Amino acid sequence: MWGEITPAERLRSVTRRSVDDDRLAIEAADALAGFASEPASLVVACRRVLAHHTTHGALWWVCARILAAAEPGRAAELAVHDLEADRTADRLGAALPLLDDGEVVAVIGWSATIDDALIARFDIDAVALRVSGSDPVPALRRRRRDYAIRVLEPWDATLDRVARLIVSAYAIGPEAALVPAGTRDAMQTIGAAVRETWLAGGVGRVLPARMYAAVVAAGANRDDVEEISLQQFDRLVGPRGLERPADGAARTDCPVVPELLRPLT
Description:
Number of strands: 10
Largest sheet: 7 strands, mixed
Helix content: 25-40%
CATH superfamily of the largest domain: Translation initiation factor eif-2b, domain 2
Strand order of the largest sheet: 3-2-1-4-7-9-10
């Protein structure tokens, strides 16, 4: 597909074009494989791509896995395989309960993972919440199904019976997660109407403490994300299904890479 395009051009194309969030880490891993034979250039390439997408946890996971590997090219291939084989959508779809009349599943941060989870759940009335850091409309236009999804503000009066509130995480650390800005206010606004609140992760989203701290520091000046305690969530849903947030956050396969702990700029 790439023909005679150089690795640098491939990486530039991946990081600067409009790429669906759920494909970005996969596309980047494939592009970074082109730098596998040049360790110094690989470090620069990883730091450059992260500087463009500072809070994308799965992208940090990809770069860390590649830089820590004895065979970076092979590590890139394995990262792509693991991301493409992510079972989070299947686990989420199976875990969602049957709803009583008038109940809805509300979503903050409409992702392909959540969309895929709902493909087989015709019985679920799902709504997408608009918060300051996440407008769901662009993602809904890319949906794989054409049934209508209502877009609501958190203060909408119809949100009086929310069986599950699902929040998409950009990155998850041992005690907190990065989520769309406005999530905390939305949770407080809906309040007691929510039966349970779930945090949706996925392959590459759970990071060790030092790597997660680097992500938070890199995104400190962004106004579209915020940090929220894991204690605010009843469950964390990932490739293993539903877990206690503390248990899921303790399970990470991301190495700590010193080259990524320094400021990106």
